[in-house]
Write a structure and sequence with these properties.
With about 280 residues, this protein is mainly beta. The chain contains one helix and 22 strands.
């Protein structure tokens, strides 16, 4: 009688072939001088980036690498045009079909207190704090957390939240399908999301203007020192609640409420659909 068990014996062999290359982890460190105010770029993929300020004219990088013999990862750090560039280099087949987590190169970066910096990854988080300058942070499908930054900051992600605390900086950017949370952000603000709430407290605006936008989410703003003309727009069947005292109501109804808080000429725009707006 012919056996019918042979295909079941072959399948485990095929699976073993797919994971035959052993994975490993290692930590590497490099550093280069960078004067205060210099330029820095840091890029990786599918890996987190953490950036911390320190009192040295130097960039120090710790790379935590996970790779395998058939999908090796390396990284480069070099002086470029008076600045520093840090880049993870993945093999072309790094993100093809495979069993288990793909290769990664996570960066922890210590930077001077002031610089022009751009930090980018994908499918993982970014956290930064303790420095300032002209700064850009880009990822996707994971959160961005910013704290104690100065200057001008831009941020973008998707399908994850943006949190910013104690920024003496202007802030602009976007996410989607998650929340925006702001606390003690002093500069102008221009942020948007979708399908998520926006909460903010301790704003100022520096007379640059404040714009917070979402859809299918609520907006709750405690303005702090911010003054100017508030223009709040939402769906007709939803509401705008003004709980702030000592304000002048300029217009109310028809999906838009306009309120003036004497002190500056900036516009504070709050826009949502299918959600409420609360102004404190």
């Amino acid at each position: 009688m012919r056996s019918l068990r042979m295909p079941a014996l072959i399948l485990p062999v095929l699976c073993l072939c797919a994971v035959s290359a052993s994975a490993g982890t290692r930590t590497e460190q490099k550093s280069l001088p960078l004067k205060s105010g210099g330029t820095l770029s840091v890029s990786t993929r599918n890996s987190p980036i953490r950036v911390e300020g320190w009192d040295k004219d130097e960039v120090a990088v710790t790379a935590d690498i996970a790779d395998s013999a058939d999908r090796p990862v390396r990284w480069e750090m070099e002086a470029v045009d008076g600045g520093v560039a840090v880049k993870a280099v993945f093999p072309d087949k790094a993100f093809g079909w495979h069993v288990g987590r793909g290769p990664s190169c996570a960066f922890t970066v210590k930077v001077p207190r002031k610089l022009a910096g751009e930090f980018s990854t994908s499918n993982d988080s970014i956290a930064a704090g303790g420095f300032g300058g002209t700064l850009a942070f880009h990822t996707s499908n994971d959160k961005v957390e910013l704290e104690n930054l100065d200057g001008a900051v831009s941020v973008s992600t998707s399908n994850a939240d943006i949190t910013a605390r104690h920024l003496r900086a202007s802030l602009k950017g976007s996410t989607s399908n998650d929340a925006i949370r702001l606390e003690d952000v002093q500069g102008g603000v221009d942020l948007s999301t979708s399908n998520g709430d926006v909460t903010a407290s301790g704003l100022d605006g520096w007379n640059q203007g404040i714009s917070l936008r979402t859809s299918n989410g609520d907006i709750d703003v405690e303005l702090g020192k911010a003054t100017g003309e508030i223009r709040a727009r939402t769906s007709r069947h939803e509401s705008v609640k003004v709980e702030r005292k000592n304000v002048d109501i300029l217009e109310s109804g028809s999906g838009e409420t306009r309120v003036r808080i004497p002190g500056s000429s900036q516009v504070i725009g709050l826009t949502t659909s299918n959600g409420t707006i609360t102004i404190r």
